[in-house]
Amino acid sequence: MTTLERKDGRHQFADLFDWADSLPNMFSWPAAIRGVRIEEYADGDRYVVKAELPGIDPEPDLKVEVANGILTIAATRRQEEHTGTRTEFHYGSLTRRIFLPEGADESAVTAQYDAGILEVSVPTTTRSVETRTVPITRKS
Fold it and tell me: What family, per the record (predicted)?
């Protein structure tokens, strides 16, 4: 006769957890994979996007573009050469694309950088959307 053994539920996923622990954590991923962290909100008649970009020199290393309803933020953090052997800073290129809301005025976008935060302001207009009935014709 065969005896059934009950497995301890606590060890059921032990192999999975061991495997997950062997993966690099998110903070050790290259900057290009992590991306740019943003905050976006409507403030009256403008759409605001704030991007967290510490350690960036906005003159040579930051670019904001708007085209076809998409806001693109591109930044490069350049590595400095030091004689030390340890760094936890992340270097490389970062890009983030954000769809602009309906009514965004792409010609009047402004951007400012202060204390590691890029703030992009996009004026918006509120258009009243009218619903109209579309006539349907019968194909002969």
Answer: Belongs to the small heat shock protein (HSP20) family.
